[in-house]
Amino acid sequence: MTSTPDTPRTDLLSLVPGELDTVLQRHFAERRQPSFRATQVREWVHDHGVSDFQAMTNLPQGERDALEARFFVEAPEAAQVSVSTDGTTKHLWQMRDGELIESVLIPTSDRLTLCLSSQAGCAMGCTFCATGWGGFGRQLTAGEIVAQFREAGRWARERGRGPITNVVFMGMGEPLANRKAVHPALTILNSGLGLGARRITVSTVGVVPGIRELASRPEQFGLAISLHSPEEALRAELIPLEKRHPLPELMDAIREFRDAGGRRITFEYTMIRDRNDAPELAPKLARMALDVGAFVNLIPFNPIPYQDWLPSRPDRVEHFRATLEEAGVAAAVREPRGRDIDAACGQLRANALVQLEDGKARRPRARAATSASGAEASAPSSASFSASSDG
Ligand code: SF4
To answer: Which of 34, 284, 312, 380 is deepest in the core (most CB within 10 A)?
Structure first.
């Protein structure tokens, strides 16, 4: 591979470990350099989290320059950092082309979970979701997905908040609608950066072929299903994808995932007042959870600015929890995190779009004029994120 000024540079962070070694070894062989140079670069990228080739100080200057001409390591800028009073921290990342994506760090007593994005925006159009409101921007690359882990992890470590212990693909986008990037990203996080498969959960609204692909992988990644209703007609009102992959088909795929063995399955159930919280739905939900051995997270809905729905009343949430418990289903009520920082998936981006376009929702094509604050956000309380897949 000979680089010319017109050859697009390759993102080393998008390559799974085997590919990374191959590409680097070929590069250094062409330059008549010893093969251990490839190991040196991989260690800088994967073990030390370095993105700047000039910081790879055990490489000769000429090799750093040659790497820079041919490769890059994805490292998005933080356009905004919002820290909640509960410690939840949301980053709004600005990508090279100006796209905005979000990730959320959620600290609990024994872990630091990162909720990351797999797409800029989302095309699924779920009616309760701020990301759906913001529309679809584009697919993220594997490097852009992994970079959220590296950069958010760097931010946390520099502030003594420890390493990220868990990852959930529960931010912006439908991960299984971007399998071309999500599969390598899973491999890089797991075998490249050393995060255990059982500490990584992929969340989906029900992309059945994607669930089957995930089941066929040998690693024991967790699966979270955004269920939100045990009935097809009601679910279709909340999640348009239900019409393409109805609940019976979805449950078949989840059973296949369960039968692959040793993997965690979670049902996410956002509870919206007078929408999906009728008492008669609770036993149906319990039967579905028992069928596949799923843990159930009950998440009271927090209103978003573009939707006038309300959270379920506490007694209704408690009714669901008790019904599940009596049926033998493990369940928890997840209080939303980051209430004071607009931590709902997609909300910072949606707000930024509004600011950028003076009230008209349109995707940005240039770097935003937002600034990194690193301080408490002053945005009004609205929807928020639930650290929900750690059941
Ligand atoms: S809930 Fe998930 S799949 Fe649905 S619109 Fe939001 S990000 Fe997309």
So the answer is: 312
**What residue owns the CA closest to ligand 1's atom 4?**
126
Structural domain boundaries in the chain: 10-72, 77-356
| pLDDT value for 107 | 94
CB of 116 closer than 8 Å to CB of 233: no
Ligand 1 pocket member 345 (CB < 6 A): yes
Residue 388 has pLDDT above 50, yes or no: no
Atom of ligand 1 at shortest range from CA of 226: 1
Give the position, in ligand 1's atom list, of the atom nearest the Cα of 174.
3
Percent share of the chain, pLDDT over 70: 85
Q: Provide the 10 A C-beta neighbour count for residue 84.
A: 23
Confidence of residue 316 (pLDDT cuts 50, 70, 90): very high
Q: Which class in CATH covers the domain with range 10-72? A: mainly alpha
DSSP lists the bridge partners of residue 226 as 268
Distance from C-alpha of 88 to C-alpha of 344, rounded to nearest angstrom: 11
CA distances (Å), 25 to each of 38, 41, 380, in order? 5, 10, 52
Q: Give the best-scoring range by mean pLDDT among 79-88, 229-238, 260-269.
A: 229-238
Q: What is the pLDDT of residue 363?
A: 36
Distance CA 174, CA 382 (A): 22
User: Looking at residues 18-39, what average pLDDT do you find?
Assistant: 98
Q: Per the confidence metrics, is the pTM higher than 0.85? A: yes
Q: What residues act catalytically?
A: 102, 345
Structure tokens given for 352: 């930024």
Residues in a beta bridge with 105:
89, 114
CA of 238 to the centre of ligand 1 (A): 10
Q: What is the position in ligand 1's atom list of the atom closest to the CA of 119?
A: 7
Q: Is 107 in the pocket of ligand 1 (CB under 6 A)?
A: no
Mutation test residue for ligand 1: of 101, 102, 116, 122, the one with most atoms within 8 Å of CB: 122
Q: Per-residue pLDDT for 99 more than 70? A: yes
Query: For all residues of the chain together, what is the average pLDDT?
Result: 87
Thinking of the domain 77-356, which architecture would CATH place it in?
Answer: Alpha-Beta Barrel (3.20)
**311 forms bridges with which residues in the sheet?**
272
How far, in Å, from the CA of 357 to the mean position of ligand 1?
22
Q: Compute, in angstroms, the gap from residue 204 CA to the centroid of ligand 1.
A: 8
pLDDT in the model for residue 302: 81
- Ligand 1 site, residue 126, Cβ cutoff 6 A: yes
